[in-house]
Each structure stands twice: as C-alpha cells, then as structure tokens.
Amino acid sequence: MERNWNCDDPERRQEWAASTTEALRVIEGKWKIIIITQLFAAKTPLRFSELERLVDGVNQKMLIQQLKQLEHDDIVVRTIYAQVPPKVEYSLSDLGLALGPSLEALINWAELRRKTRSTLQS
Q1: 4 in a domain, yes or no?
Q2: Is 77 left (phi over 0), alpha (psi -120 to 50) or beta?
Q3: Cβ pair 75, 37 in contact under 8 A
Q4: Is residue 91 packed enough to be buried (19+ CB in 10 Å), middle (13-18) or exposed (0-12)?
Q5: 14: Cβ–Cβ under 8 A, 6 or more apart, which residues?
Q6: Residues 6+ apart with CB under 8 A from 95
Q7: Fewer Cβ in 10 A, N or C end of the chain?
Q8: pLDDT tens digits for range 45-100
Q9: Exposed / middle / buried, residue 38 (Cβ in 10 Å: 0-12, 13-18, 19+)
Q10: Based on the structure, what is the number of domains in the chain?
C-alpha cells in the first residue's frame, strides 16, 4: 500500500505511530523474527523439533512461549494431527504471510545501513 507521507494532520501521524508501535510489539523479542523467518524460508509447515533445530540457541521453554505469543497474535497457525504420537506443525497464517513485504523492506534497510556504516568507517 502506498502511503502519502506528506500529511499535515497530526492526529493521522499519531495513528501511524501507534500502528507502528503495535506492529513492532507483535514481532519484538529475540526469537520471534527468527521463528517467522524460518517459517518463511521453509515454505512448508515445520514440526516443533524442526523449529528447535533451526532457531539456534533457543531453549524449549522459550520457543514454546514465543510460538504461543505468535499464535495468539494470529501470526502463526498451530495444527495438531490426531495420531500417536501426536504430530504438531507450525506455519504462517495469512496475516503472518502478509508480513513478507515488510520483513523484506527491513532486511533491505538493514543491509543498506550495514553497507553505509562500513563505508563510513573505511
């Protein structure tokens, strides 16, 4: 969506700031972005053990907590299969998939920032 940043309405700018703060709250934390990125890269649902291997350094308790928060915020879908042993898979919801362009923009910005900083330090 294109945004007209040339806005003279201070209330509208406050709404933008509040929306941005809310969005960042949903994805903040050491592990959430990594989890989301791994789910994007996988392109197929991942089992808990697969996510645990892919998210280097996370412990089970923290991974469970972060997945529950992402599920609560409708970013991740948890699918339970009725079988023995139980099978649980995690995937991005439609809302989670909608984060793709924003995450891509953040990655591009981070790479530009890194490149700019290294050029200035040279």
Answers
A1: no
A2: beta
A3: no
A4: middle
A5: none
A6: 74, 75
A7: N
A8: 999 999 999 999 999 999 999 999 999 999 999 999 999 988 999 999 999 999 99
A9: middle
A10: 1
Phi-psi region at 59: left, alpha or beta (left = phi > 0; alpha = psi -120 to 50): beta
SS (H, E, C) 5-69: CCCCCHHHHHHHHHHHHHHHHHHCCCCHHHHHHHHHHHCCCEEHHHHHHHCCCCCHHHHHHHHHH
Nearest to 62 by CA among 13, 88, 105, 29: 29
Q: Domain holding 64: CATH number?
A: 1.10.10.10
Residue 96 included in any domain: yes
How many CB atoms are located within 10 Å of the residue 66 CB? 21
Handedness of CA 61, 37, 75, 27 (dihedral sign): positive
Q: What does pTM read for this prediction? A: 0.86
